[in-house]
Amino acid sequence: MEQPTMRLIMRKASGDDEDSQLSRSSTDTPLMTRRAMNPPPPHGRRQATCQPKVPSRKYWPDLVLASAHLKATSKFRWFWDIYTMLLLCYTAVAVPFEIAFVQQDDVDALFIFDRCVDLSFCIDMVFNFITPYWDPHANAMVEELPLIIKQYLTIFRILRILRVIKLVRVFRASRIFSRWQAQLNIPMAIFKLAGHLATILLLAHWLGCLWGGVVHFEYHTDAQGNKLSWMSVYGIDNKGMQTQYVTSLYWAVVTILTIGYGDIPVVTLEEKGIAIVCMIAGCGTYSFGTVLMILLRLLNDTTKMRMRFLI
């Protein structure tokens, strides 16, 4: 009997005999079939993988600057504009009232709420730095963060930083209204009517607070050393702030509406100056529509004349 050689022993140990080769070839048939169905890529061409390419560390700042922007049409920006509009309404109403009638400087719930409002407007200013803007020259939205910051810090927009100062920030409402007008399907006339009505109500509130606050900042005394103002003559200088505010608002409304009952007296020189300003504001409110119609007629006549010369 022939002795097995070392090569035969190693082949049996590794399973490379004929039986194992046949069984392995029979089990590898599906794998060969799959390889035939999916041929390897040609030489010199790399096969695409599903793993994303991670940028190097030195490109991370550019990647963050390119992607850190807040879309003007996103839901978050929409809800944030509504929240900002509510804060603007609160600022327009509460700040003049606090200046004119609230004389205490205690740290109470109102003080804490006002500081939260200030913080919200600071956050809103940061959001404005990362919100894309519309470039009419390029007819496209500019989303690059350096260009947005440059646009926000121009000479004409530097005044927006002053909106952190209490009442100045109220004028930001016009930009929010313009953004809503572009996104909502609401006629222009409704926006104009609502804006005009809000202006009249806000003007009456501001003038009322101005009329009530002048007593605390500018007053005179009589021969006995008593304060002499319209509140003291009217008899409400020792009343609560609600009575003083309602009386001041009543005077502002009758003055703006050019009714002028005359039941509330004007005593000091400063009060006379404020009364003149209120009467001019009331006349301007009513004459605004007439002046606008005159300007529209002049523009129409100018357009017709130019068209006649062109023809």
TrEMBL record:
**Segments forming domain Ion transport:** 79-288
Question: What PANTHER family does this protein's entry cite?
Answer: POTASSIUM VOLTAGE-GATED CHANNEL PROTEIN EAG, VOLTAGE AND LIGAND GATED POTASSIUM CHANNEL
Q: Which domain of life is it from?
A: Eukaryota
Compartments (UniProt record): Membrane
- Indicate what this protein is called per its UniProt record: Ion transport domain-containing protein
Chain intervals for the UniProt region annotation (Disordered): 11-50
Report the SUPFAM superfamilies cross-referenced here. Voltage-gated potassium channels
Assign the protein's first listed, main location to one coarse class.
Answer: membrane
What keywords tag this UniProt record? Membrane, Transmembrane, Transmembrane helix
InterPro entries in the record, alphabetically?
Ion_trans_dom, K_chnl_volt-dep_EAG/ELK/ERG, KCNH_animal-type
Source organism (scientific name): Aphanomyces astaci (Crayfish plague agent)
What Pfam families does the record tag this protein with?
Answer: Ion_trans (PF00520)
